[in-house]
Structure formats: structure tokens, C-alpha cells
Amino acid sequence: MARIPLVAGNWKMNFDHLEATYFVQKLAWLLRDAHFDRRRCQVALMPAFTALRSVQVLVEADNLPIEYGAQAVSVTTQGAFTGDVSADMLAQLGCSYVIVGHSERRKYHPEDDANIVDQVRAVLAADMKPILCVGESYEERRQGIQLDFAVGQVNDVTRDLAKEDMANLIVAYEPVWAIGTGMVATPDTAQQAARAIRDHISSKFGDPAGQSVRILYGGSVTSKNASQMISQPDVDGFLVGGASLDVEEFARIVRLA
Ligand code: PEP
């Protein structure tokens, strides 16, 4: 089954709405210049909540070939939850994706497995696609348990999901030791992890489900390593952090995908 590659830029807590506006306009121009075809590759930006509306206005006004989403979501639908943003609010802003379970959220916020499962459910229920982040720490890699660890995280989150949900689930294999460190996984390492995750989903939900789920690699992706990485059969694109803050570099990565 042909899976359309996805390149998603995780801006983290960078770019106010004016900087986001400039970025989107320039990216759209660079994509047009490169004859970008959204049927062959999808591009998504994950701004801070405060920039989502500005991105939406630009994308919708010019029907730009750029999707967008959020970096986290509340597990509740509405009410007295100060500071939270619901899945429906994001869907109303035209979000297509929400990053769930990023290692920085697991570390700096009380996001445990149960909360991550609920976020995934909330995103799916609002007809958006969760980008579920999994991946081992340096210590787990040193112990040689990296594949079991990443597959275990996928297993925990998908335990109560339905086969049909797999078409909308995106998994980002992001070894924690590679995030923001400049230490990128080898293409072979990324392929092994992506393959193990796909095999797990196939064994649990059937082969069509395993073949339909998109698996991204994330962790110090740049235009220098993207090409070898994307040529791996089970790597369907990237979740890009640092390199997504430079619009020219991000566009280069998109072109390679
Ligand atoms: C990330 O935080 O999702 C990420 C992949 O960051 P970086 O590309 O900077 O390693």
C-alpha cells in the first residue's frame, strides 16, 4: 500500500503569530517554486496555540498546500480546566493533527500513559490525526531494549483502539537521545524501529492496518540526513524540531521527502 509521506514541523515554544505568518508565506512560496505536489507528500506545521489562527487564515485564504496542528490537547471536552484547549476547539481551527506524548511533554508535564491514551482518543473523536511520539532514552538503548520499549509504548496506547483507528494514527519514532542533540539515528536504526512498530500493529489489527499506519522518524533530522532516512521502506516521513525553524532548511527536507 502506498503511504503518502508526511513532513511535520514541530515548532515547540517558538514563533509568535507574526513570525508564523512570515514563515507560512515564505514556505508557500518555496513550495510553489519547487512544484510541490500535495498528492505526493504532505506538509504540516505545528505552531504554538497562539499562532494557530494566523496560520489557518493564511492557509484558507490561498488554499495553501500546508496542513497544521497542535502540540498537545486536553483530555476533557470543556469546562473548568484553566489553561487547557480541547480537541473540538482545535478541530474548529482547521487542525488536522495533534502531537501526543512528545518526550518533552512526558518530562515537563504530568503526561503519563493513561493521559496519552485519553489524548489520542480525544483527537480521533474530533476527526483529527494523533502523531503519537514514542522512543527510548539513551539508557534503554544502552541496555539493548530499544525496540521492545518503543513497541511497548505503542502497545500501551493502542490497547483499546479499533482497527479502523489505525488509518488515522501516525506514529513518530523519536529516540529521546536524538531529540535536539544533533545525534541522529542511523537509517538502519530508524528502519528497524519503524518495522517493529508496523509489525506490531499488523499482528494486533491485521496486515491492512499495519500497512496503512504512517511511521515518521524524528530526532535531529536535517537536509543532510533526510534523504537516506526516507529511502527506508518503513519510514514514511519526519517529525522535525530544530530544523523546522529555518524555512529554507525545512523546505529542503520537504523536497527530499
Ligand atoms: C522533536 O522535538 O520532535 C524533534 C524531532 O526535535 P529535533 O528535530 O530538534 O531533534
UniProtKB/TrEMBL annotation:
Homodimer. This is Triosephosphate isomerase. It comes from Bifidobacterium polysaccharolyticum. Substrate binds at residues 10-12, 180, 220, 241-242. PROSITE patterns: TIM_1, TIM_2. PANTHER family: TRIOSEPHOSPHATE ISOMERASE. Involved in the gluconeogenesis. Catalyzes stereospecifically the conversion of dihydroxyacetone phosphate (DHAP) to D-glyceraldehyde-3-phosphate (G3P). Keywords: Cytoplasm, Gluconeogenesis, Glycolysis, Isomerase. The active site is at residues 102, 174. Pathway: Carbohydrate degradation; glycolysis; D-glyceraldehyde 3-phosphate from glycerone phosphate: step 1/1; Carbohydrate biosynthesis; gluconeogenesis. Coiled coil: none annotated. It catalyses: D-glyceraldehyde 3-phosphate = dihydroxyacetone phosphate.
